[in-house]
């Protein structure tokens, strides 16, 4: 069998689903390394038709794409796909995804060899759907204190489990429709979208008609709401108070399985003190003791202003820091709203040219950010000189990961010692480097963004430390990944002409625009340590 015939036979076996793993890997390698074989492959099958069919088998999931279930073709037409059905389609899908990956890499990166870690498929999002295990959303906070509260973020999805904190307030909006404002110290276990256990703490619940039946288990009773508003205070000794502000609630003895014999009904204006043994004493309703959602909103606004003041103090201190080579606070200018005004070395002013982006609210009221939505949205900047080390710091709100690569800051093209800072479609943070010896390497984290982190403000920092020979990625002030510099890492780092939130390549390229908002970008000419990164995060935390 001639070599050309053998190659065609190998392609046929792969497309028909008959090839072994070794044969499939063999075809993959040949397609990567031999332009003529790729041309033969494209002539051999109608790739355009295959690609046109594939989107029907892909379904979007808030910025991610997963492979959906394939359907058997109803056509009676014979051929590879007609005769081999599902197996042929799966093989075809795998080969096309792999081939497209090869073509994209070669279009973007020229004739460089592709390192092992950049094999085709690495940038394809995880297959399958994403399960939502949440039952509520954390929508407001004020003054939270406690060991676990540092990981709580407004907008995050809350799954069943224990929530305990020492002080402060939070608001939970349950999937079933109930809204609960809880005040610490508290220890509350969330069971599902309509049931919680209050071991101790103070809470106020608003239960509209669609959420009727929302239940709270206390040490000596179960409260079932019938479409109303009530307050509950459970002390650490198990003594509880129930206050009904509107509508009515039902009380049942603990562990009675809602026995009708133990049922008691309280209406608007009623209040009870209930001992741990179930003994009840009438009490006076005290609405003011239980924080409403509106009052919490006012308290949260006050907290936001305190944080804004803290951030502005940090900004002033960094203006005198000689290590800062560029600081863009993303505050809208009163006179030049199409310029991004920043601070450069030695108190100089630097400007970025805004293209397409729109101004929006930032981390707090009275703080602005830039919103990137369209493929052309970007900010053009120039940072001269070369650097032995760099630290990037930014606040971002990711609204979607619909591109294979989502730019944070990228040098034009991808020249020697150029830097590409971006988020991949799988949610990982990546620092891509093209070294002076033409070798390329991506220093990336495990996935840090997923469907449930979208819409939240997140602080990202990446430190390129030549002295220690490592790259460190930080997320919300904590190290996410430490990676050793490659042995071939060589030369000083360049930023030069660059783009925030997009990429200005040479000629046509795949879309790499950021989808979301950016509120602050700082570039240091030195490697910051973990404490300094943490300080920036704490001062700017919304």
UniProtKB/TrEMBL annotation:
Recorded hits in SMART domains, A to Z, give:
LamGL
Recorded hits in InterPro entries, A to Z, give: ConA-like_dom_sf, Ferrdict_sens_TM, LamG-like
- Give GO MF terms, alphabetically: sigma factor antagonist activity
Among the Pfam families in the record, one is: Laminin_G_3
Residues folding into a coiled coil are none
The regions listed as transmembrane in this protein's record are none
Keywords carried by this UniProt record = Disulfide bond, Signal
Q: Does the keyword Hydrolase apply?
A: no
Instruction: Cite the LamG-like jellyroll fold domain residue spans from the record.
Output: 388-531
Name of protein:
FecR protein
Q: What is the lineage of its organism?
A: Bacteria, Pseudomonadati, Planctomycetota, Planctomycetia, Pirellulales
């Amino acid at each position: 069998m001639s070599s050309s015939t053998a190659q065609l036979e190998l392609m046929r076996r792969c497309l028909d689903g008959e090839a072994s793993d070794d044969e499939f890997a063999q075809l993959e390698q040949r397609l990567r390394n031999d332009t003529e074989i790729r041309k033969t492959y494209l002539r051999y099958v109608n790739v355009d038709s295959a690609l046109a069919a594939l989107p029907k088998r892909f379904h979007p999931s808030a910025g991610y794409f997963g492979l959906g279930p394939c359907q058997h073709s109803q056509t009676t037409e014979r051929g590879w796909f007609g005769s081999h059905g599902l197996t042929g389609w799966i093989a075809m899908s795998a080969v096309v995804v792999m081939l497209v990956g090869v073509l994209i890499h070669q279009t973007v990166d020229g004739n460089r060899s592709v390192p092992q870690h950049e094999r085709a498929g690495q940038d394809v999002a995880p297959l399958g759907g994403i399960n939502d295990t949440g039952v509520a959303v954390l929508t407001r906070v004020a003054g939270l204190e406690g060991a676990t509260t540092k990981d709580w973020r407004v907008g995050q999805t809350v799954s069943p489990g224990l929530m305990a904190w020492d002080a402060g307030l939070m608001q939970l909006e349950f999937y079933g429709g109930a809204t609960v404002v809880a005040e610490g110290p508290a220890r509350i276990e969330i069971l599902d979208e309509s049931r919680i256990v209050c071991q101790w703490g103070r809470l106020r619940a608003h239960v509209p008609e669609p959420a009727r039946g929302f239940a709270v288990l206390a040490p000596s009773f179960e409260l079932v709401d019938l479409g109303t508003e009530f307050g509950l205070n459970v002390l650490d000794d198990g003594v509880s108070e129930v206050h009904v502000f509107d509508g009515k609630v039902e009380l049942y003895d603990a562990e009675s399985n809602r026995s009708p014999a133990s049922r008691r009904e309280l209406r608007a204006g009623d209040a009870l003190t209930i001992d741990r043994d179930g003994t009840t004493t009438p009490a006076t309703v005290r609405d003011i003791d239980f924080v409403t959602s509106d009052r919490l909103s006012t308290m949260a606004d006050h907290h936001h202003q305190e944080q804004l003041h803290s951030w502005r103090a940090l900004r002033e201190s960094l203006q005198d820091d000689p290590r800062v080579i560029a600081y863009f606070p993303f505050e809208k200018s009163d006179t030049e709203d199409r310029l991004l005004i920043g601070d450069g070395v030695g108190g100089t002013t630097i400007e970025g040219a805004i293209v397409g982006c729109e101004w929006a609210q930032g981390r707090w009221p009275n703080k602005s950010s830039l919103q990137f939505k369209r493929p052309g949205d970007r900010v053009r900047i120039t940072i001269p000189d070369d650097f032995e080390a760099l630290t990037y710091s930014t606040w971002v709100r990711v609204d979607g990961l619909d591109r294979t690569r989502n730019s944070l800051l990228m040098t034009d093209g991808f020249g020697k010692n150029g830097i590409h800072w971006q988020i991949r479609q799988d949610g990982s943070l990546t620092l891509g480097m093209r070294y002076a010896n033409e070798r390329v390497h991506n220093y990336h984290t495990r996935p840090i963004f997923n469907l449930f982190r979208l819409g939240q403000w997140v602080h990202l920092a990446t430190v390129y430390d030549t002295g220690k020979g490592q790259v460190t990625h930080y997320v919300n002030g904590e190290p996410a990944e430490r990676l050793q510099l490659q042995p071939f890492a060589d030369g000083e780092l360049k930023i030069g002409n660059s783009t925030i939130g997009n990429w200005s390549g040479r000629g046509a390229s795949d879309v790499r625009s950021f989808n979301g908002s950016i509120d602050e970008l700082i570039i240091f000419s030195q490697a910051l340590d973990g404490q300094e990164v943490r300080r920036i995060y704490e001062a700017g935390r919304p």
